[in-house]
Known about the structure:
Two copies of one chain form a homodimer.
Chain A: H1 13-16, H2 19-30, H3 39-48, H4 65-69, H5 77-91, E1 102-103, H6 118-128, H7 136-141, H8 144-156, H9 172-186, E2 195-198, H10 201-212, E3 218-224, H11 229-236, E4 240-245, H12 256-268, E5 272-279, H13 291-304, E6 307-311, H14 328-334, E7 344-349, E8 363-368, H15 372-384, H16 390-399, H17 410-436, E9 441-442, E10 451-452, E11 455-456, H18 460-468, H19 473-485, E12 487-488, E13 490-491, E14 502-507, H20 515-533
Parallel strand pairs in A: 1-12, 3-4, 3-5, 5-6, 6-7
Antiparallel strand pairs in A: 2-8, 7-8, 9-11, 10-14, 11-14, 13-14
Helix pairs in contact in A: 5-19, 6-8, 6-16, 9-16, 10-11, 18-19, 19-20
Subunit structure (chains A, B): Homodimer.
Domain Aminotransferase class I/classII large (chains A, B): 158-515
InterPro entries (chains A, B): ALAT1/2-like (IPR045088), Aminotransferase_I/II_large (IPR004839), PyrdxlP-dep_Trfase (IPR015424), PyrdxlP-dep_Trfase_major (IPR015421), PyrdxlP-dep_Trfase_small (IPR015422)
Amino acid sequence: MRKFVGGILTSLISRSFQLQKHHRSLSSSHSRFLSSTPLLLRRSVSSMADSPSSSLPVTLDTINPKVVKCEYAVRGEIVTLAQRLQEELQAKSGSHPFDEILYCNIGNPQSLGQQPITFFREVLALCDHPIILDKSETQGLFSADSIERAWQILDQIPGRATGAYSHSQGTKGLRDTIAAGIEARDGYPANSNDIFLTDGASPAVHMMMQLLICSGKDGILCPIPQYPLYSASITLHGGTLVPYYLDESAGWGLEISELKKQLEEAKSKGVDVRALVVINPGNPTGQVLAEDNQRQIVEFCKKEGLVLLADEVYQENVYVPDKKFHSFKKISRSMGYGESDLSLVSFQSVSKGYHGECGKRGGYMEVTGFTADIREQIYKMASVNLCSNISGQILASLVMSPPKVGDESYESYSAEREGILSSLAIRAKALEDAFNNLEGVTCNKAEGAMYLFPRIELPQKAIKAAEAANKAPDAFYCIQLLNATGIVVVPGSGFGQVPGTWHFRCTILPQEDKIPAIVNRLTDFHKGFMDTYRN
Amino acid sequence: MRKFVGGILTSLISRSFQLQKHHRSLSSSHSRFLSSTPLLLRRSVSSMADSPSSSLPVTLDTINPKVVKCEYAVRGEIVTLAQRLQEELQAKSGSHPFDEILYCNIGNPQSLGQQPITFFREVLALCDHPIILDKSETQGLFSADSIERAWQILDQIPGRATGAYSHSQGTKGLRDTIAAGIEARDGYPANSNDIFLTDGASPAVHMMMQLLICSGKDGILCPIPQYPLYSASITLHGGTLVPYYLDESAGWGLEISELKKQLEEAKSKGVDVRALVVINPGNPTGQVLAEDNQRQIVEFCKKEGLVLLADEVYQENVYVPDKKFHSFKKISRSMGYGESDLSLVSFQSVSKGYHGECGKRGGYMEVTGFTADIREQIYKMASVNLCSNISGQILASLVMSPPKVGDESYESYSAEREGILSSLAIRAKALEDAFNNLEGVTCNKAEGAMYLFPRIELPQKAIKAAEAANKAPDAFYCIQLLNATGIVVVPGSGFGQVPGTWHFRCTILPQEDKIPAIVNRLTDFHKGFMDTYRN
């Protein structure tokens, strides 16, 4: 069964020291181009072949094996299939037993009908086209505080030039606003020099991986299951993913004993573990860490000399009254740890929260506890890409400094925000209940984030059928679900899971009025699937 | 003298096979953290030290040596100095012998006062805040064709959701528009499936380097001088820069004999040269390639099995009547070469041209002549970062499909465009003449792009003074220029140059009315410098 753990765990410790060799055996299962000719002969051989495509200089066996090895399930095979089905539906309605494809594979709220926060979009539009700020018609179209905010932001941008490259870390004034927002959130000082604005959180994660990983001997502790950006970026940068398993039976709890065990095991294999990734609220698991637990994690990183990479992009997405988001920066400062004690990077994004502005590609990382020399290196890496997009930078400042009580937009902003968050809580509960009503399915609560990660007990017959189809059993299930219902979810094997268990990730993002139909379609499909494959 | 060639040429072939070793000797000159302790002991030693910063886990000798080795001169030391001077000026006016810092280090037109193209910004604002499209006030504020275009674009975006992640390559409809623009430009078919929209051209270049470079044995032919994005990304991805020298005495001409010579030399050292970078119009050199020359380049790549990486981001920036931009795609198609003959990637950006929208981070690459397997890998790399920002995508579509004769905005658009381009031509000529009037300075014409790259004959006494200050002579000159005048230019050593020659890169972007003052300041400084160091 172990072979189906697949996906992200292919980079497990024991194999990772032999990247080149590993790559060849891996790609041989993928590629029809691979020859058994020795490396040095391959290019000249391929240029001697006479099919048109083989005269091209680039082949799978001559490109970067890390790229070939990299996997990214949330946009993988199943999404390609979904796109094909969508094209078929467009070409011929009625060609499938559903009217539309429902993309529950990725946290992309506005693609499923969520409306943007009006105030944010007003400010962005005004900053894009500032010459209308002085016109009288503008006051009829835009709120007074959006006009005022746009002026403030323009004054923070040198020459009011929203079309110019900014400082490599992002416009100083916008970073000041963000730092003030972090201070207001945490109750501890934040410094705009610690902020690096990025095109969403993903490039920030890549930057840290590129910095920390020298070779396959460098390990990064990652939760399993995890958002596959981490496994993908570790693979792309040639490092080793050191897995720690979240405890599904304890609501996807994070146990320090598990961290210790995996760290020791990695060390015993010669892996130098550099950093710990924590995703809080969890993706794909939805748990929100308790304060006590966070303190233990900080202590662990401090003691073991690990960089704490804190993915906090779902900080606004908490749905249960007994849990609250606390940033790791706040936790560490509350323990008395400062700049000299803990290397901590917190990732934030405009793509998540109640706003869900994925297409704007805004985000930042707050980098604390690194020496000046290392910060210079991070700055240099940011410089090579010049800067992140200014609209995304502006939006990141707005997210960390939304309208306040008394502002003209406050009420409408607040209503939009609460409407989205309370609806997300309702949707999360409805889908969780629906999953738990299915035969052989158990699903932890989504305390936060945007996902449920139900576990499916698949019948042996289904597992055999999957093997015959050369698919992981959960991928087999998800493909059948898509073909039958148009619902796109991602197999657990894309995130990692305890060997022999099967899951899928489903976003809670379809609009509320669509949930009942989704539940019906899911339920019908599942019954049929289980009936077909019941042992 | 050879040691001053510095910068990008540190990755020259003969050294690159010993990256790890090389890094240590390199970083030892930079870093006060480096110990001579063997690798495996170093981390435990540093954790035993008791200064606060040394208890932090990340040190210069434990991070990715490729990051340490990477250099990016256009935002390097000289810009850091400029930022400090600017802060000092703000804190105390009159603290320096100039009123403002003039950033001529980077092609960032709007930072120096260039105004955005109105039509483009109208459409962006409307797409950011589409609910105003139906309001009557909007017609008073926006041109009719910008409203119409915004509707068209929204209809191209699934669910009109400008806040959703798009397809990993970018929104299909926008790619269709871009493909149509390429067809109109070249007179040959273009396919939207070949377009990958990116956050500016830089991430696209990184993506191709990451794809093509497996190890230090993989070489990329780059012009010298070159835009240091290429040297930086080759270093970051662990490859080898194989230099070919442009001929300064022939207007920075590109000689095929030089390409052949360098390719053979690299091969003889065991380097597998994978690709040829051509920047046309040239950066930092400003030359525009002749059609004949381009055909020779295509033939060379075809014959030698090289991927042609064509940096065509300055395609709109041509200032001389006897030269015209031709894309390499058009050239290769006109020679009868199609998908099966030549692997060609063309990079385009919204940051350059007449629009200069650097802050929007929009761009694309057109990828042709790769097998389906390789395209899948490129798609996967794009997927890991989800998508580029949608405003940048929209702007890329506008740049490739601006207003046409008969559209309401055509006249104003056309006037703005011509105003900028003709002024750039005037500025280029004025600065070129000014440089050529300086003692010991010769400067080729900027036929295109945004830069001049004058050569300075520095007196021996200046070279000695630079050596004493541990600076490359051209860096020494540029730092003195900055300190005396507030003008920021980039030393030639950041771009590469023939050993023993010295240059700097200066953008042609200051507004026309500032040029006379700049010329005066430059001239006065240069006279003083030469008088001080005359042999």
